[in-house]
Design brief:
Blueprint (H helix, E strand, L loop, with lengths): L9 H7 L5 H10 L5 E5 L5 H7 L4 E6 L2 H5 L7 E5 L12 E7 L7 H11 E12 L3 E2 L1 H14 L8 H5 L10 E2 L6 E6 L1 H8 L3 H8 L4 H14 L6 E13 L1
Parallel strand pairs: 1-2, 1-4, 2-3, 4-5
Antiparallel strand pairs: 5-9, 6-9, 7-9, 8-9
Helix pairs in contact: 1-8, 6-10
Amino acid sequence: MPRNWFASGGAAYAQFRPTYPDELAAFLADIAPAKACAVDVGCGTGQFTGQVADHFEEVVGIDPSADQIAHAAPHARVRYDCAPAEVTGLPDASADLIVAAQAAHWFDRPRFYAEARRIAVPGAAIALVSYGIPVFDADIDGRFQHFYRAEIGRYWPLERKLVESGYASIDFPFAEIDWPAMAIRREWDLSALLGYVSTWSALRGAEDAGEGTIIDRFAADMEGLWGDPASTRRVEWPIAMRLGRI
């Protein structure tokens, strides 16, 4: 089995990973054939699960990491199960929407697709959502991009390339549906940025290789460029998606 990069660190993930725009969950709910049940596969700490639950009678969040689920925010219409994407344990023909947000690149996708077909109601929507490399204000974006690509880039797992391409190269054996352009937009202070970086699988890879000082150098440089660390800067992630119907 591939390494589970998120078996721990649920608290940081819940605190620092960006949430999706509300319009994304609303759009996916609108194209589902009904709003009885949605499944968020690879849900992590449930950032998107709760947003989807605002539009469905029930949502099941599935993740193989007990630590991630332990830090998920409760929601009256959400149930969290600790299970892999490929063997959810859910009933046949039970899901109107199956979504994987920033997670599908970790799956055994042929097995996941078979499982999705099993749990989907006829005509269910399936969405593989990702967000790409963040873009910052011009005066700090160059340093960030150099850190991402040239310094810590070699420590990204191979699966990260699928995210960078917006999942464009993955197999997706479903009738595809058009979707409107969307983006995640935030105003972050310096601690929020560094907290976000601390959740990266590449940082863990660097630490495993004894290169943890990479983040220290990056943090020092960003502090010099940022100005007042409590001041906020604009950050934006483009959303990419493969969307289809089962």
